[in-house]
UniProtKB/TrEMBL annotation:
<keyword id="KW-0808">Transferase</keyword>
<dbReference type="InterPro" id="IPR011990">
    <property type="entry name" value="TPR-like_helical_dom_sf"/>
</dbReference>
<dbReference type="Pfam" id="PF02518">
    <property type="entry name" value="HATPase_c"/>
</dbReference>
<dbReference type="InterPro" id="IPR036890">
    <property type="entry name" value="HATPase_C_sf"/>
</dbReference>
<dbReference type="InterPro" id="IPR005467">
    <property type="entry name" value="His_kinase_dom"/>
</dbReference>
<keyword id="KW-0472">Membrane</keyword>
<dbReference type="InterPro" id="IPR011712">
    <property type="entry name" value="Sig_transdc_His_kin_sub3_dim/P"/>
</dbReference>
<keyword id="KW-0597">Phosphoprotein</keyword>
<protein>
    <recommendedName>
        <fullName>histidine kinase</fullName>
        <ecNumber>2.7.13.3</ecNumber>
    </recommendedName>
</protein>
<keyword id="KW-0902">Two-component regulatory system</keyword>
<feature type="domain" description="Histidine kinase">
    <location>
        <begin position="448"/>
        <end position="635"/>
    </location>
</feature>
<keyword id="KW-0812">Transmembrane</keyword>
<feature type="coiled-coil region">
    <location>
        <begin position="356"/>
        <end position="383"/>
    </location>
</feature>
<dbReference type="Pfam" id="PF07730">
    <property type="entry name" value="HisKA_3"/>
</dbReference>
<keyword id="KW-0067">ATP-binding</keyword>
<dbReference type="InterPro" id="IPR050482">
    <property type="entry name" value="Sensor_HK_TwoCompSys"/>
</dbReference>
<dbReference type="GO" id="GO:0046983">
    <property type="term" value="F:protein dimerization activity"/>
</dbReference>
């Protein structure tokens, strides 16, 4: 109950000339003591112990257990990791001290699961891992405390008879050893609380009297809080509500230690019930509203349920039916959700209870029967087991085949979907290849015709013009007309050749070719404004030609068909994406009718846009002009 003398002794060890291992142990012990009193001191001792333990693997493993305690309150995830690390490292040491440290580390890890509202996980870890290690360690005090923890876990899931069993085990173990009396007192406190839930109030009185005797040598002990709680619960049952409230207040003042907050919370919940019972509704509301603001308390479903019920009762007692009804609805909703979540578990428990009862009846019946009847019953039972096993096996086989059939069917459907998708992709690739071949062939043919026109027929016409020019100026006027016609023919020939394959595109790149195209199509009736941003001059020749043809077709439509007076052409590039925007003030058209149009102009544009895996968006209204936005992928 008082460890100040022990702490002084441990501090004295640090002043002596002893080994680093002894000093490391002393620092770890002092860290555990100061954790709840002075965190700065605690961390200083943890750090010192860590440095001194570097040559001792066993003590380094113990360090992680202390580190888990350091993170325990504020950083539970780090605490869990540290406790599991300690268990892992200590598992290589088959001695009692290691078993004890592992048992305590795993128990604290289990408590962290309990703090997540998972008492079943807590019970499983303690019974399957912590308790066996505690037995191996031979430390009855730890074993008793862990039995008590399991009892509390069963209380939390409302299995009070099982809780009674483990709490009584804890009391039996702790009563037979000369351990810290606080452990035995804590066990009696929990026993009394469990009897309250079992409604065995005579047992509460017996436990309360025992506690009074055990606590008498320690009048200032924080463990008096448990005694006052039990006394208050007993008085509440006897309808002595004011006396019960007085005991709860005494318990709140007496509370202390690592679990002080939780003890006070438990005391306040009990006090609220007594306040409501004696019609002190406003005082009850103050406490309930403080709980509503406490995130930790509201994190537990059971606490929320109790708070909602108390708010309903308090507002109803004050005559505020509307607010009372609202809290009643919240209580009902939460209660329903908790009920649904426990339905499967309760069904399982009922099934187990039913099977147990049936077996007990069968045993009683077998005992009452003669030997021959007993043998017949055993034979029948064996047959039933065989039939049951066969039925279960048949069920699993049928389930397996159903599962296998469904999976096979799903796989077949998925394969069919994949096959169709692959076929579609192949068709698309083939169409792209065909389109690419057609476009490339078209461009090659354009180049050939342009070259032939320019170099062949164009040269011939130019020669004829020169020869005719050398004729005497005095010859017939008809000769001048022929020369003029030849000039026009040469100009038209060069225009056609340039349209089929502009020299500027071949020589100085896309941007210059587009600018030249805009200038060539501009005239008195139509002005074309060209804007270029960040165009890459190193695009493949085929890509540049495709872009040029798209722009050429758009401008041709705007000038020849839309009779536009003003055309704005913007070309820009952002990495692998090339953007074309063309706006005109021409006569416009019905976009919906474009899908059924048979003209080759827009068809060529669409084909080239598809070839470059692009998108085209057209906005046009009759007599209000046209806007075309094109996005091409040129990577």
């Amino acid at each position: 109950m008082n460890i100040e003398k022990d702490i002084d002794s441990i501090n004295a060890v640090l002043q002596k000339k002893v080994s680093d291992s002894i000093k490391a142990r002393a620092h770890f012990a002092l860290a555990s003591y100061w954790l709840l009193k002075d965190t700065a001191r605690a961390w200083a001792h943890i750090s010192s112990g860590y440095v001194l333990s570097k040559k001792y693997p066993y003590l380094r493993a113990c360090y992680y257990s202390v580190l888990g305690a350091w993170y325990y309150s504020d950083e539970p995830e780090k605490s869990e990791a540290a406790y599991l690390k300690a268990d892992q490292l200590l598992s290589g040491y088959p001695n009692r001290e290691a078993y004890k440290n592992r048992s305590e580390a795993l128990y604290r890890y289990a408590v962290l699961q309990q703090r997540k509202d998972d008492d079943e996980a807590f019970i499983g870890i303690v019974l399957n891992q912590s308790v066996p290690l505690a037995v191996k360690s031979g430390d009855s005090a730890i074993l008793g405390s862990q039995y008590l923890g399991v009892g509390v876990g069963f209380m939390n899931i409302e299995q009070y008879k099982k809780a009674e069993d483990y709490i009584n085990r804890a009391i039996a173990v702790l009563r037979n050893i000369h351990a810290d009396p606080s452990r035995l007192i804590a066990a009696y406190n929990r026993a009394g609380e469990n009897y309250f839930y079992l409604e065995e109030f005579d047992q509460i009185k017996r436990v309360s009297d025992t506690l009074k005797v055990l606590l008498s040598p320690y009048p200032e002990s924080e463990l008096y809080a448990g005694y006052y709680l039990l006394t208050g619960l007993y008085l509440h049952h006897k309808k002595a509500y004011k006396e019960a409230i007085e005991n709860f207040d005494k318990g709140i003042k007496a509370a202390g230690g690592a679990n002080k907050v939780y003890v006070i919370q438990e005391m306040l919940f009990a006090k609220i019930k007594s306040l409501i019972a004696c019609h002190q509704y406003r005082d009850a509301l103050k406490l309930l509203n403080s709980f509503l603001r406490d995130e930790e308390v509201m994190g537990f479903a059971g606490s929320r349920l109790e708070i909602f019920q108390g708010l309903y009762q308090s507002y109803l007692g004050l005559g505020q039916e509307k607010q009372a009804f609202q809290w009643l609805l919240k209580y009902a909703d939460l209660n329903d959700s908790l009920y649904k979540s426990k339905t499967i578990e309760n069904q399982s428990k009922l099934d187990v209870q039913f099977q147990t009862a049936e077996k007990e009846k069968q045993i009683d019946r077998l005992k009452a029967e003669k030997k021959e009847a007993s043998l017949t019953a055993k034979t029948q039972r064996l047959n039933n087991w065989v039939l049951g096993i066969a039925t279960v096996l048949l069920f699993f086989v049928a389930a397996f085949f159903i599962f296998y059939y469904r999976n096979t069917k799903k796989l077949a459907v998925q394969k069919e979907i994949n096959y169709r998708q692959q076929l579609k992709e192949v068709q698309q690739q083939q169409e792209l290849k065909i389109t690419q071949a057609m476009l490339e062939g078209e461009e090659r043919e354009r180049q050939r015709v342009a070259r032939d026109l320019h170099d062949g027929l164009g040269g011939m016409l130019a020669g004829v013009k020169i020869n005719l020019s050398r004729q005497s100026e005095m010859e017939d006027q008809h000769l001048n007309d022929v020369i003029h016609q030849l000039d026009q023919s040469v100009s038209e020939l060069r225009r056609i050749a340039r349209n089929m394959m502009p020299e500027s595109l071949l020589k100085i790149g896309l941007e210059a070719a587009l600018r030249d195209l805009c200038e060539s199509l501009s005239g008195n009736s139509t002005q074309i404004e060209f804007q270029a941003y960040n165009l890459d001059g190193n695009l493949p020749a085929a890509t540049q030609a495709t872009i040029y043809r798209i722009v050429q077709e758009i401008l041709s439509n705007a000038v020849r068909h839309a009779a536009a007076r003003k055309v704005i052409l913007q070309c820009s590039q952002n990495g692998p994406v090339f953007y074309i925007t063309a706006e005109d003030d021409g006569r416009g058209f019905d976009v919906a009718a474009l899908k059924e149009a048979k003209g080759i102009g827009f068809i060529n544009i669409r084909n080239r846009v598809d070839y470059l895996k692009g998108n085209m968006d057209i906005h046009s209204v009759p007599n209000e002009g046209t806007t075309i936005n094109i996005e091409l992928h040129v990577a």
